[in-house]
Design a protein that fits this description.
The complex is a heterodimer of chains A (222) and B (79). Chain A is α/β, with parallel strands linked by helices and 222 residues long. Chain A has six helices and eleven strands. In chain A, the strands form two sheets. A nine-stranded mixed β-sheet of chain A has the order 2-1-3-4-11-10-9-6-7, sandwiched between helices. Chain A has a two-stranded antiparallel sheet with strand order 5-8. Chain B has a single domain (2-78), classed as Mth169, Chain: A. The chains are: A alpha/beta (222), B alpha+beta (79).
Amino acid sequence: MHAAVIVFPGSNCDRDMAVALERAGAKVSMVWHKDTALPEGIDLIGVPGGFSFGDYLRCGAIAANSPICRSVVAHAEKGGYVLGICNGFQVLTETGLLPGVLLRNAALKYICKPVGLTVQTADSAFTSGYEPGQTVTFPIAHHDGNYFADAETLKHLHGEARVAFTYNANPNGSADDIAGVLSENRRVLGMMPHPERMAEEAHGGTDGAAMFDSVVAQVVAA
Amino acid sequence: MKARVHVMLKNGVLDPQGEAVRHALGQLGFDGVEGVRQGKVIELDLAETDADKARDTVTQMCEKLLANTVIESYSVEVS
C-alpha cells in the first residue's frame, strides 16, 4: 500500500499523518504542493492538517487550486482513496470532492481539545475498524470547523449514510453535529478531528489507529 | 482597468463574526443595530481595457477562486 501525503506551505500535521500511515504498514511518499504529478502507483492520498497558505482568502481555498490538487482530484475521480483531516477536509470541500464548507466556529474561538465522537457508519475503508454507534475520542484543533451544507445536501448525506462521525457535544456549531463526511463512492473521507494524533499510546489514546489499520488493510486487499 | 469584487455570506448562512461585531457595537452604546453582516472587498488591477471582457474574466475568477458559492455571493464592479 503506497500512500502520498501532500505538503503545503503551512501544513503542520503532514508528519503526524505519515507516521500514522507507516505505523499501519503503508509506504509513504511526501509530495510537495508544486509537484504536478503523484508518484506512480499511489493508492491513498492524505491531505493533512495545518494552515495551508496561512488560511488566506478562505481556509483551504488556495491549496485547492495548487498544481498537485489537480492530481488529487483526478485520483479521486478515478476511484482512488483520499483522506483529508482538519485543513485537509477544508481543502477537499474547496475542491468540490466533498460537499459543504467549514465556517468559522460558532463561538469564534480556536478550539484545541479531545472530543468524543460517535462513529455513524462502518461502511467505508476508513471506518470499517469501528462499530457503528461506537464512541471514540480524537483531538480537535481548529478555528473553522463549523460544518455547513444546505438542507438538501444534508438530507442526501444522511440518506446515503455518508456522515462518518458526529460530535457527542457539538463544539463548533456544525450542522447536525457533523464532524466528518464521505464522498458518494465512500472512498473520500474528510473530517475535522485528528485520528492521527490519537494513534499510539504516547498520544494518550489509540482510538485513531483503527482508521489507518483498516484503510491500509482494505486498500491492499482491493 | 480596475475591478472591485464584493463577497458576502449568503442570506441564511449564519455569520458569527458579524454577530460578534453587532454585540460589540451594542456594548459601545450604539443602540438599534439590528444586524451586521461582514464580507470582503477584493480590488484587482487588470491589463484588460474592455469593461465587458474584464467583467467576464472577474466573474470567472469569482466562480473559481474568489468566492465559495456554496456559502457566498459576489458582485463585480469594473471602472
